[in-house]
Write a structure and sequence with these properties.
two-stranded antiparallel ribbon, globular, 2 helices, protease, carboxypeptidase activity, Carboxypeptidase regulatory-like domain-containing protein, carboxypeptidase, mainly beta, hydrolase, 17-stranded antiparallel sheet, about 5% helix
């Protein structure tokens, strides 16, 4: 049986050099796809010839990506890396609350990671979540993440069963589309929604981390503008046509484009699994721009896509019901995981 897994643990110091034996993963999980590469294209020179004559090693700008089925136990670490604020509240019966929200910090939390590819294992240092994607359609919720990182070590195993997995997660059923519900502008959206996609990007600037005398990043890349884009696909019906036109024309009850308005509404996504009462996920986008696009083909149903981009100008109240934060994205995750923090 093949072994294709990925694991994470937060770093206390960005890119700190550790021996392989010192890695203490919080978890590892199976992946549908995984790709970590050095991006070290050689620099070649032709000197007037039609053929390259000489080559030297190029600069290393390591990056990687994973895609897997999302579950409530692993999502916290990805939000921890993608968003810059985190609050933990211990709960009863090991049901703990993790809150994450976007702010203005440019130095995000970093991880060590392990990428297992059967007999070949990569130990990764200085992992930063550059982008994150959640997608729900007719089956399960998929999680995608793109990373940049500092450097790596490799290990070759005798066989693919030699890798020792981290402690098994509990209550880690993957999230299905029927576990998910949406609230648009405080209400259940009209009609039937058939897919939801969130794509977030931190736009890290790697170029400014490589200086004279080095091939790979020397320090932690800073995050630039955070961009969150959301799309919801629905079908054009009598139930949905008014809401779609409102999004298309920028105001309610119009039959032509508004003179100067665009709709700005809150959006909320909730996840509850009937197998695990008390556990769940809430993602709030307190204010989003809203546009509508159409796809009409043959005699198929007309599909409309609501495209949204988040704005960071509204407040969200945290789980303590007192603290308010201004943000473009807030996440409340209740699961069985302890506080996310570097190991001692």
């Amino acid at each position: 049986m093949s072994c294709r897994v990925f694991g994470l643990e937060p770093e206390a110091v960005y890119g700190e050099d550790k021996e392989k034996a010192e890695f203490d993963l919080d978890f590892d999980h199976e992946v549908d796809s995984m790709d970590f590469k050095l991006n070290d294209e050689p620099v070649t020179k032709s000197f007037g010839s039609r053929m390259n004559q000489k080559a030297r090693a190029g600069v290393i700008k390591p990056s990687g990506s994973i895609e897997t089925s999302a579950n409530l136990q692993i999502l916290g670490h990805y939000f921890y890396g993608f968003l810059d604020n985190y609050k933990f509240t211990a709960g009863n019966n090991n049901k703990n609350t993790h809150e994450f929200w976007g702010g203005e910090s440019k130095l995000l939390k970093s991880f060590r990671g392990v990428s297992v590819n059967d007999e070949l294992v990569f130990y990764l240092f200085g992992l930063l979540v550059d982008s994150m994607k959640l997608e729900v359609s007719s089956e399960d919720m998929t999680l995608g993440a793109d990373f940049i990182y500092k450097t790596e070590l490799a290990d070759i195993l005798e066989d693919e069963n030699e890798y020792e997995r981290a402690e098994e997660l509990i209550n880690d059923l993957f999230i299905m589309f029927y576990d998910v519900s949406l609230k648009l502008n405080g209400n259940d959206p009209a009609g039937v929604q058939t897919s939801f996609t969130l794509e977030g990007n931190n736009n890290h600037d790697v170029d400014k981390t490589i200086g004279f005398g080095y091939r790979h990043p020397q320090g932690q890349a800073k995050a630039n503008k955070r961009e969150n884009s959301i799309s919801i696909v629905t079908t054009l019906t009598q139930e949905t046509v008014r809401a779609i036109l409102d999004a298309r024309y920028g105001d309610v009850d119009l039959l032509e484009p508004a003179k100067c308005k665009i709709l700005q509404v809150p959006l909320e996504l909730n996840v509850e699994l009937c197998e695990y009462p008390g556990l769940g996920l809430t993602i709030k986008f307190p204010k989003c721009t809203l546009l509508a696009e159409f796809d009409s083909s043959g005699i198929d149903d007309v599909e409309a896509t609501l495209n949204m981009a988040t704005l960071g100008s509204e407040k969200v109240r945290l789980a303590d019901n007192t603290t308010e934060v201004t943000t473009d994205m807030y996440v409340k995750l209740v699961n069985n995981q302890p506080k996310i923090a570097p190991s001692n």
